[in-house]
What does this fold into?
Amino acid sequence: MTTDTPVSEIQRIIEELRSCSIKPEKIVGKHKVIIGLVGDTAILNPQQIQQLSPFIEKVMKVDKPFKRASLEFRHGEPTEVFVSTPNELVTFGQNHPLVSIAGPCSVENEEMIVETAWRVKAAGAQLLRGGAYKPRTSPYSFQGHGESALGLLAKAREATGLGIITEVMDSADLAKVAEVADIIQIGARNMQNFSLLKQVGAINKPILLKRGMAATIEDWLMAAEYIMAEGNPNVILCERGIRTFDRKYTRNTLDLAAIPVLRTLTHLPIVVDPSHATGKAEYVPMMAKAAIAAGADSLMIEVHPDPAKALSDGPQSLTPEQYKALMQEIAVIGQFFGRQSQKLPLSTGVANLNIHKATSIV
It folds into this structure.
């Protein structure tokens, strides 16, 4: 619709389109209102729709199999996903500062999760990640403490004011997870658990959708479509590495090329998880910085106060000191690419690195 369209005219058009057995969805963007038409749209003639009102600026067909997740559906306007935490309103989106997510793979005990929360917050994190329910390859590995761990995450949230992101594995646990989580995570192993995707699509919570280990980009976006088709538009995509032929040196292969590809296909925000992608703490800082250069909107990094004693994924976890150092480097990298964190001011020492956009980098 044109920017000067009266609200009454938008409503009139919506009612007229409903009479054609089409479901109109009003999308209010920063600069204009878009009406997405969902259903058997093959019978619609774009020229006839254009004639419904002089306020209709353009009519486009979405050719991709993923409709709501398609960049065309929002006429190229990036989605903003807002997350209300006790401290602040955190915004995921292409035109916003970087969002920092950090915390351990698993919630182990109250002291550990609260200490980690305080330390990652001091380093600049806005959201705390921690697993209560853990999908593991081996049935004999630590599976998480379940519901009791959710209570510990709630205590960390209350103590520090950080938002909480944690994974749901089973629809039976969804209500309990939703009560604590500010963002609900769908893990890589559940990316194509379509019944679970429908369930989270029916609730009013942001969803972090991790890419499956062997999922194509289209598979991934179609999984997002399942969530959005149920009425939840607040989907955040997370690249966490894919399974390739060479696993000798890293846990997975971090597909950074997916970021610019996704920018051409979807309006959804993009998070990168270099911890699961590499599986080794020594590689995490470099891949985190590379993700920012590639255009990620957020980073999710595993942090544990004593990685050697972690009950899960210790080898890929940074210590709080390493995370703090990385966040200082990210402040510089983010500033260089115009995506600095809104939480972390540049320190004098880091600013003295003196990076300028005119510098040639070979």
Observations:
- Confidence is low (pLDDT under 50) at residues 345-362.
- Residues 7-61 form one domain.
